[in-house]
Amino acid sequence: MRHGSEQAPASERDDPPRRAPGPNGARERTAVLLRGASKTYGKGHAEVHALREADLEVPEGELVVLLGPSGSGKTTLLNLIGGIEPPTAGEVVAGGRDLSRLDEDGRTAYRRDTVGFVFQFFNLVPSLTALENVRLVAELTGRGDRERSAAALAAVGLAERGGHFPAQLSGGEQQRVAIARAIAKDPALLLCDEPTGALDLDTGRGVLRVLQDLNGEGRTVLIVTHNAAIASMAHRVVRMRSGRVVEVAVNAAPAPAEEVTW
Ligand SMILES: Nc1ncnc2c1ncn2[C@@H]1O[C@H](COP(=O)(O)OP(=O)(O)O)[C@@H](O)[C@H]1O
Ligand SMILES: [Mg+2]
Description:
This protein is α/β, with parallel strands linked by helices. 26% of the residues lie in helices and 25% in strands. The longest helix has 16 residues, at 201-216. The structure holds adenosine-5'-diphosphate (ADP) and magnesium ion (MG).
């Protein structure tokens, strides 16, 4: 029962303001925190230590690049932060929630409400238009109205292409639709796994520009890549090797996406 106050209970209120004044701003808060996070697959002889005791802290509003060779644990780390899987040991806190303590339903709700995912292969539904692809996912969160979805397409420069099917779009355009799909629900965290891995240099840069713009609006963006060139546009570069975070470097002057070259 609610008493005289006009204020809705916490569960009905909007998320707390998360558009901090950008990296290193005065009101900096932590978006992601890992403490001794480990992930082991399989048992006995088949045991694989995909992630070993990872420590990481990402302030809100940063663009972070996770760099490492194939098999070094990048996707595993991103999947823990995205609540796709729980850690085997250690702590993973993101979006204000301790993911290591959530059950599967809790992680599903966390993913739905807090995380936007972008993958290497865009994973669009071929029989749906660009706008329908965006709405499909946003609807799961109750934020699937046409205007919001159209605005997300406009934010990635595809306002005029909403009626096109994936096969009618270039690879770079399809990836931008996938980014629009990820941001239409206004997630606190945007997690991108090799987002330019299937694109040529020019097209890839266009996608990085979109990601940098979204970060410029205050959104926390994590980009996983094996492409070291992309590190130059990050506020923070996390280097991984053999399942370990081996280095975290802060970059005071991130380069614009246009200057990234490979
Ligand atoms: N579901 C899984 N089952 C077993 N081993 C896995 C699984 N996912 C990843 N691995 C292993 O964990 C290690 C790290 O994988 P991954 O995080 O995908 O690396 P990266 O993204 O850096 O290429 C690899 O040796 C990989 O084979
Ligand atoms: Mg990977």
